[in-house]
Design brief:
Helix 1 packs antiparallel against helix 13. With about 325 residues, the protein is α/β, with parallel strands linked by helices. The strands form 2 sheets. It has a 7-stranded mixed β-sheet, sandwiched between helices.
Length: about 325
């Protein structure tokens, strides 16, 4: 374990130790590289959260079930451990340790994931915040009425928790005509696709859903090429952040006028570079994951610390500006 103050350290399931000050955790893969390490102290001061530190817990992709249970049990029983934001492991953690929560919110049950761990009156609570934070991030760059006006598709690479949340948000029947013509989701293995389809069907979505195993990037290239103009194309794989590479090859051609979103904001960001290379000629709108990062974290912080955080307006812009001040 590294030396230094608690907030400088990154734990694993095997090295957790009781908190000596109020502690908020970040459960991920490479948490030490996240901008939240620099952002959280600024936000904590701005929001008046008091004496609290942010600590990372790094787990390998698809960690053993016992690791997830160890982490959840630790947070549940350690008095000064307040809760956590979960990224990358949202589905695996819920599958392995869902029974350890005293309360599970309806979206977490529907999505079969947990992205926020908090405590209320001695009870451990699981929330799925991705459907909210991904919706807020989408609304920031996808114009209202876009799908109704264009007949565009939604194409998502990766079938993890973020993809499930995005599919749910954009295909809800209450959106009326402003829904994708169809949703295409690819993944490197079938089980995640089955889980996404189960949520899609359970939520009552009647938008056509096409799923495909993409064990080669060229498979994804084909879906990009087949998407109509104006389609929303998303990298939700973690490639470019948690692992090197991109879900598409350099030979992929985005549909004209596509809205291209890489959920990552740090790392090699190959997918983002591929989109930017076609931005001018293809009339693309290209987004990284920064706004998603801000919404994702503020949604969970509001839950864990039981504080009101605006999702727009001056208060939100102030938090956004504080976060942006840490970017190199």
């Amino acid at each position: 374990m590294s030396a230094g103050t608690r907030e400088d350290r990154t734990f694993t399931a095997a090295t957790l130790e009781p908190a000596t000050t109020r502690t908020f955790y970040f459960i991920g893969v490479t948490t030490g590289s996240s901008s939240i390490r620099r952002v959280f102290p600024l936000w904590a001061e701005e929001l008046g959260l008091g004496d609290v530190v942010l600590v990372g817990i790094d787990l390998p992709l698809h960690a053993p079930a016992d690791d997830y249970r160890t982490v959840v049990e630790f947070i549940k029983h350690d008095p000064l451990s307040l809760g956590a934001l979960v990224t990358t492991h949202k589905l695996d953690l819920f599958r392995a340790a869902g029974d350890l929560f005293d309360d599970v919110d309806p979206l977490a049950r529907l999505m079969h994931e947990v992205s926020s761990i908090s405590k209320r009156d001695g009870r451990l609570v699981a929330h799925a915040k991705d459907p909210i934070s991904s919706g807020l991030a989408l609304d920031a760059f996808v114009p209202a009425g876009h799908f109704a006006a264009t007949g565009a598709d939604l194409v998502v690479f990766g079938a993890g928790g973020s993809a499930i949340a995005i599919d749910w948000y954009l295909t809800r029947p209450e959106r009326g005509a402003d829904r994708p013509r169809r949703v295409v989701v690819t993944n490197r293995s079938q089980p995640r696709l089955d889980a996404l389809r189960a949520v899609h069907d359970e939520s009552g979505a009647d938008t056509e859903l096409v799923t495909a195993v993409a064990d080669e990037a060229t498979v994804n290239d084909g879906f990009v090429a087949a998407a109509p103009p104006g389609s929303v194309v998303i990298n939700a794989t973690g490639l470019g952040k948690d692992a090197p590479g991109s879900p598409i090859t350099d030979g992929a051609t985005f549909p004209h006028g596509a809205l291209v979103w890489d959920l990552n904001y740090r790392g090699s960001l190959v997918f983002l570079d591929q989109a930017r290379a076609q931005e001018a000629d293809g009339g693309l709108h290209v987004e990284d994951g920064w706004v998603y990062f801000v919404h994702g974290w503020t949604q969970v912080i509001a839950e864990v610390f039981d504080v009101d955080i605006p999702t727009s307006g001056a208060g939100f812009e102030r938090l956004s500006d504080l976060a942006a001040s840490t970017r190199s």
